[in-house]
Amino acid sequence: MTEADHSELKMLPLDALHRELGAKMVPFSGFEMPIQYEDGIIAEHLWTRSRAGLFDVSHMGQLEVRGKDAAKALEAHMPGDFIGLKEGRLRYSMLLDDNGGILDDLMVTRRADHFYIVVNGAMKKADIAHLTRHLPASIEVKERADLALLALQGPKAAAVLERLGAEVGLITFMRGSEVRVRGVEMWISRSGYTGEDGFEISLPVKNAAGLARLLLKDKDVKPVGLGARDSLRMEAGLPLYGHDLSRMSTPIEAGLTFAVSKRRKMEGGFAGFARIDRQIKEGTKVRRVGLKIDGRLPAREGAGVFAGERKTGVLTSGGHAPSVGGPIAMAFVASEDAGDGTKLQVEVRGKLLDATVVPMPFVPHNYVR
Amino acid sequence: MSVYYTEDHEWVSVEGDTGIVGITDYAQKQLGDVVFVELPDVGKVLDQGAEAAVVESVKAASEVYAPVSGEVMEANEALQDDPAIVNASPEENGWFVKLSLSDKSQLDELMDQAAYKAFVKTL
Predict the structure, then answer these.
(1) Contact at CB, A227 and B38, closer than 8 angstroms
(2) Most C-beta atoms within 10 A of its C-beta, which of A325, A355, B64, B79?
C-alpha cells in the first residue's frame, strides 16, 4: 500500500507491547506495524532460523465462510480442491479473477462447520467484497475482527508451545486444531511464512497480549518484526502479494502451479480456468524465478533484469538474505530466460550485477510433516 | 580537530584541510543493519550536497551527501568486507571518505556537536 496519513492507520491489538519491546513502528497494510525491535532485522532473522521468533500478524484478515455447499462455492473462485480437503487441514490457494489473475493469495482451512480463510491484510476488504458479491446468497462470509493472529516460527517453536502445556505434537505441517492453552481456547495450525517449522495461533484479541507475554518469557523466544518476516519469506521462496503476485499474473506464471489441485486441473470450473489450462499445456511467456546475485550490493523491487542487451524482466522482491549471506531476489522474466542456471544481469543505479537463476527455496524448508 | 554535523545526519571531522565524512549514530540506528556501502572513486570531486556514498541497509538504500565540497583522497575500504562497521562504530571506524576540502567557509553553515544534539532531540 502507499503510505497513508498516519491518522488513518489502525493499531494492532498488541501495539502497546510492541512499543514496550522497543519496536520501530511503520505503516503497513493500513496498520502501524513493528518493522523491527531492538536487535535489528538480521539478528531477528537468524534467531528465527535457530530458535523461535514471535510475529504479530493480526493485520491479516481472518474470515469464516459457511453455508450449504460452501466448498463448491469457493471452488468457483479458487483453483484448490476444497471438496476433498479434510477437516483440520490447510490448503494454500488464490482468489482468481475471470482472467486467471491473482486477486489475493490465502490459506484455507476446513473446520467442522465452516471454512476458515486467512487473507492478506491489505486485500482483506477487497476479498470480502469479491466473495460477498460472487458467492451464492446462501453462503455467509464473516470477518473475525475479534481475533488476533500470532505466529511462532522456528525450530524451537514446538518445544516452546509444549512447555506452555499446549499439545501441538500431533499437529503436523498444514494441519490445525483447537487447542486450550492456560484456559484459553485458540486455533493453532502448523504453518507460516518463514520456511521454518512453526505455528500460527488465532485467538481472541483480549487474550493475545497475555499469550504473547507468556511466550516471550521463554528463553528461546524473541519478538520479530516485518523486516525479518520479509527476508525470511524471500529466502523460503514464498511470494508476497502486491509485490511478487498481482492481478497481472496467473498462478502458472507465478510458479504456483502446485496450488492448482489435480482434480481441478482436469475438471476446471473455476475463474480463469480457460487461460490457466492453456498455460499449463502450452507454457507461459513469463515466469517467476529466484535469482542469486553476485557480490554484496542488494538489488530491490523494480530493478530491471537483462539477458545480454535484452531486457527480460523486473525484480518483484529483492534484498539482503541474512541466512544466504548475500543478495537474493525474485523476478518475473521471459520464460526462455527462466531455466535454472541461466546467467542474467540486474541493473542497480546504472551498474549491471551478474545474477543466476536458481531453484527456490534459497534456504531449505524445515517443515515437520 | 573539530567535528561538524548536517541536518541529514552526516558528520565531517576536520583537521587542517582534510575532512573525514561519516554518518551519525542516530542515522545508523534509523537505517538499521547496513549490508553494503557504495563509495566514490578516489579523485572524484564532490560538491557540497552531492552524493558521497550510498548506504544499503536490509530495508532500503539511502544516500549520504557531502557535507562540504572536496576531492576524495581516500575511501574506507574496510567497509567493503564488513559494512556492519557503520552500525558498530558510525562516528569512528565506520567513516566513508576522506576529503581534501576546497572551501572551508562551508563549515560555518554546519552544526557543532551541541547544536546537533539539540537538533536530534527535536526529531
Answers:
(1) no
(2) A355
